[in-house]
Amino acid sequence: MISQDYQIELRHYRYFLAVAEELHFRKAAEKLFISQPGLSTQIKQMEELLGVELFTRNKKKVQLTAAGEYLKEEAEFILNHLQQTRKQTMLIGSGALGEIRIGFLGSAMQNVVPDLLVRLQQKYPDIHTSLEELSNQAQLNLLLKDKLDLAFVRVGRMPTGLERRTVVEDTFSLVLPEDYPLEAQNFKRMSRVQDENFILFSKEYSPEYFNTVMGICEDAGFTPKVNHKSVHALTIFRLVEKGMGLAIIPTSLTHGFDMKVKFIELKKIEQRALLSVAWKKDNRNPVLQHCLNLLLKE
Fold this sequence. Notes:
Blueprint: H1 10-22, H2 25-32, H3 36-50, E1 55-57, E2 62-64, H4 66-93, E3 98-104, H5 112-123, E4 127-133, H6 136-144, E5 150-153, E6 162-170, E7 172-177, E8 197-201, H7 207-219, E9 225-230, H8 233-241, E10 246-250, E11 261-265, E12 273-280, H9 288-296
Parallel strand pairs: 3-4, 3-5, 8-9, 8-10
Antiparallel strand pairs: 1-2, 5-12, 6-12, 7-10, 7-11
Helix pairs in contact: 1-2, 1-4, 2-3
């Protein structure tokens, strides 16, 4: 029986998370720079203090119990929140207002994110910013875990607990090699390119975009032959330039590239590329509202 003088401390959560992530005591101990017996003792102590088993162990593998799975999610949240609180406290103590952590898709960096950064710098120069380009799902996951404050995404559905507002409603454009025998003035319908290969953004990167583009083609009476997929506009343009296929992208992505490709804006189709800003409803970052006010002009 463990003494009542003991209590769960932050180190227990750190040790627990290392084992929960590695599912291997030796690897977790190496990661923590402590001995394996010492780590095992700390985990056993934590289990006794909680009165539950967090791992099932045998000679072949280590697995999380149902209680361990729950604690893993909560411990990640707790430690991340403490780390961010410490960082914000230090920034505020040094005279800054705090930090805003922004995730974005590449297309948001054309105008929306740079414009926000300029306005922040002008009105709130003491707000620090950090930026990270990520897929839609990765951004939503990090919002839920309080590891991002703002996310610029293209999604159809928003997880419970998150808010969003549309910030850009964009058309789509067809991307063709520079010497492709088709121009905007003689382009009438998408069926003109139904026999071509297509290069799309990966469905895993942006399911909403992928499904919308498939819908554009299907509305024209064909299912596109997808030859390549990528998560980067530059890669897609390079493949189009080399004659590997055509692409359909949000029109905002047609600017800022000097490549041997051309664009035909698809003005007559009903589909639009919607870019939204998302945030967690109960986010406690003191500078989040300043950013939202600038972005949404409230």
